[in-house]
What we know:
Elements: E1 6-9, H1 18-27, E2 32-35, H2 42-59, E3 62-66, H3 69-75, E4 79-82, H4 89-96, E5 101-106, H5 109-117, E6 122-125, H6 142-155, E7 162-165, H7 173-178, E8 183-186, H8 188-191, H9 196-207
Parallel strand pairs: 1-2, 1-8, 2-3, 3-4, 4-5, 5-6, 6-7, 7-8
Helix pairs in contact: 1-2
Amino acid sequence: MKISTLHYITQDLTHVSHWEQARLACEGGADWVQLRVKNRAYSDWKETALRTQEVCKKFGATFIINDNAQIALEIEADGVHLGKTDFSPIEAREMLGGKFIIGGTSNTFEDVLFLHEAKVNYIGLGPFRFTKTKKNLSPILGLEGYQSILQQYKMANLSLPIIAIGGITLDDVAILKANNLHGIAISSLINLAENPVAVTKVLRKLLS
């Protein structure tokens, strides 16, 4: 299965729905959308997922649901992304089977090793720097933290795609690519931009 180099993530905003956020990103060339919904009733979460999935199908984008393996299974999303304190990736694989994409969040090499052994399909590593998007932030890694973990990863002869996440700006893309990260995950940089479509296009170009 192909893991995109640009993982676009929606967020709870008062002025733009998740599916509208996804539409704008997809218009800019995003081919991977992760729905990140917080503090919603199950029925509302599922409805939001269905509407966002509809957008992804229209644009041919991979649709990933953050945190909720049950909804991913019910609506037949492409996969699920699990945070460090979410549902176990091992249990998620047992629930979803082999056809679903499973990604996991990591902050240390030990996290990375655990996720690799849990047979996830990709690993989100971060945060790169401070971000307001996520509460209860893990220790910030910075470039040196990434380099240290990636060196251990290489020495262990591991090969899963590593996605950088957390406060990434346009100026960071080149240096992250140069350090052999598979791709980046972006939320606020696109969602809070004056022109989300244009910013997504720039990111796609930088990652190509």
